[in-house]
């Protein structure tokens, strides 16, 4: 009866009859199940599947086969796994799918992955703890070319009840095909700041998380075709996107935030940072707008020496001024990151030009596990 | 080069090598593409798939086959489709998947579906228009049994800049396995209110969207196994969940909201409503807390005559009082809804007991397309 009602509801919610909706679900699947020994049991109901693999997992080897029980539930237990938050997916007969039993997902425009958190014995800095919590707010604002933009804003605990106190602002930009949701739903920047502010290790601040590709919003809202491959990092398309983002941030997002939030409006109280493409947008926007940002954090990104020579002599021609201007120029990278080599070249270039910066090198690759490490290093030193 | 970089980034983001990540993607797929004639073209890249169907679609027949081109991109054009927002998914060799190229998704704990909006010539009441926009805020609050709850709050345009103005509050509860995100990401209650408030047809109000199944949060945070089948509507489990929700709302959510937001704190300025399970929680919570809510909206839900006789004689024994207490008791249902018969019985029961209520019957089933119709009927009459 329960299952029938479930199927019926599911079928009708999905706009199909039960028969049409999907194979009978049978048992109520719990997945993932994090066990006390830090192993994790993943389960997927697919009575008719031939193979089910655990794919896209950053723990253990990828593509671990699941085994099917009499009820048609495939499962596998992996680990123990190092405590962290990991993306994963299933490959069912070769098709990559999110875990239907898991509501935690990775917001991204081009792939679908679920998220599993393995808690550590001593709660991690990004864990949900019993401390005062800030809020996450989604705003619509007037963006480039008449479009309506979306931006996500973290305000620290107590913000809503105060009426006068003003805060510094960290503009934090996510990676290619990530969305304005990724830095809090995957990066947990809100919980990290809740914990750091409660511990007195980070200054109370507002974090503004813009959407990195306003060109797509314009296309969406004007009904124009979406621009081709958003992944390109060079060519006119990439440059137009980069410039459009900078225009959106400086001419639309910042004025909107400073009009609607209690912000301290000067360069010493504005920081900018980002991951991957967002890091490239960070460096270019900061170097083009030295009057606006005193703190600059590049998470796994760089600008090539050639582009630096071509476009940013304003930064390199007078290192003394640049070193005074930037209270922090921070660059973090993982040794397994596919952008490691380019980042090292960038840092060597800055050294040669006598530009001060702080370098942080860790193990691991181009992952959000590493982004949390970069946040853990940089959030405590902003606005100090 | 672009594709290689994309694959590499995707692979590494997902924590697998390129080879492991998934079949080569080839072209950059745009899906869905809403055409000017209101047909929609759905595309999915799967060079190795044997069959790809458009499943879970509420437009046209379900399970429309897609056809594969030379590049391995499957696609189909359907419609013209009646303007609305619809859930859909693909069935790739029998496996139900979200559209990887579409970031718009249906927040739900038990199934994955993407969303497509077909705009109407005269923008719909739920469309994103060029009007002042309210904000959506995610809050953490101290919930039942020491757990930390999550709740989503809509505040109307201008709220953040005012310091004194107070607002009535609509507590709005989503359906079984929906989340606290569903009423804005699928139901678009925020955009509907933005448009109605701008047009002067609805009163400016705060909307509070709680998570409907606090028992799951407790399990999640205590590491206990999640409770079995959350779909059950009867039995001790269902009753415990129902009671726990009511306790959470009345003893935790409302006090938290009234402490942190500028609310008018009396029954005439509190409304409660919900869809499906959330409608059942609405009716039971309202009937158990007549002192708290003057406006009650049931979207596709009911209480059985047997349960009414057993548990809610406080409502039926003195109809004159009840009819004074509730400024609005509203019940909406679709003729194709699997809860239609039970809703009609409930309404007949109320009639027989001389309890005033407003009935709204529409075509269609147990869908969020109908939920938007119910919101369109009820939002304008709240707090008037």
From TrEMBL, chains A, B:
Q: Where does the sequence pass through the membrane?
A: none
Q: Which Pfam families match?
A: Esterase (PF00756)
The lineage's top-level taxon is Bacteria
For this entry, the protein name equals Alpha/beta hydrolase-fold protein
Claim: ATP-binding is one of the keywords in the record: no
MF (Gene Ontology): hydrolase activity
Q: Which PANTHER family match?
A: DIACYLGLYCEROL ACYLTRANSFERASE_MYCOLYLTRANSFERASE AG85A (PTHR48098:SF1), ENTEROCHELIN ESTERASE-RELATED (PTHR48098)
Q: Which UniProt keywords apply?
A: Hydrolase, Signal
- Please list which residues make up the signal peptide: 1-21
């Amino acid at each position: 009866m329960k299952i029938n009602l479930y199927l019926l509801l599911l079928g009708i919610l999905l706009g199909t009859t039960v028969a049409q909706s999907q194979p009978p679900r049978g048992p109520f699947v719990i997945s993932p199940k994090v066990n006390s020994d830090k192993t994790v049991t993943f389960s997927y109901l697919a009575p008719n599947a031939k193979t089910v693999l655990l794919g896209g997992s950053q723990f253990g080897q990828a593509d671990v086969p699941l085994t099917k029980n009499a009820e048609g539930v495939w499962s596998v237990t992996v680990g123990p796994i190092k405590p962290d938050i990991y993306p994963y997916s299933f490959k069912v007969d070769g098709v990559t799918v999110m875990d239907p039993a898991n509501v935690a997902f990775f917001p991204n425009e081009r792939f679908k992955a679920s998220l599993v958190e393995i808690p550590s014995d001593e709660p991690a800095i990004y864990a949900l703890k019993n401390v005062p919590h800030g809020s996450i707010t989604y705003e619509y604002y007037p963006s480039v070319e008449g479009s309506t933009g979306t931006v996500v804003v973290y305000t620290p605990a107590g913000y809503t009840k105060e009426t006068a106190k003003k805060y510094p602002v960290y503009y934090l930009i996510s990676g290619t095909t990530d969305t304005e949701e990724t830095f809090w739903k995957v990066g947990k920047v809100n919980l990290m700041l809740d914990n750091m502010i409660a511990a007195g290790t980070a200054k109370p601040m507002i974090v503004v998380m813009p959407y990195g590709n306003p060109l797509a919003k314009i296309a969406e809202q004007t009904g124009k075709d979406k621009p081709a491959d958003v992944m390109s990092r060079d060519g006119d398309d990439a440059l137009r996107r980069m410039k459009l983002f900078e225009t959106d941030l400086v001419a639309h997002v910042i004025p909107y935030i400073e009009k609607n939030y209690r912000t301290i409006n000067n360069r010493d109280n504005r920081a900018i940072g980002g991951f991957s493409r967002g890091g490239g947008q960070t460096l270019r926007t900061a170097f083009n707008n030295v009057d606006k940002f005193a703190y600059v954090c590049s998470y796994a990104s760089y600008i090539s020496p050639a582009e630096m020579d071509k476009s940013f002599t304003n930064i390199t021609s007078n290192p003394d001024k640049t070193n005074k201007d930037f209270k922090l120029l921070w660059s973090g990278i993982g040794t397994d990151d596919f952008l490691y080599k380019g980042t090292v070249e960038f840092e060597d270039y800055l050294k040669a030009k006598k530009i001060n910066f702080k370098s942080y090198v860790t193990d691991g690759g181009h992952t959000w596990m590493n982004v949390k490490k970069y946040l853990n290093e940089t959030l405590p030193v902003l606005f100090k």
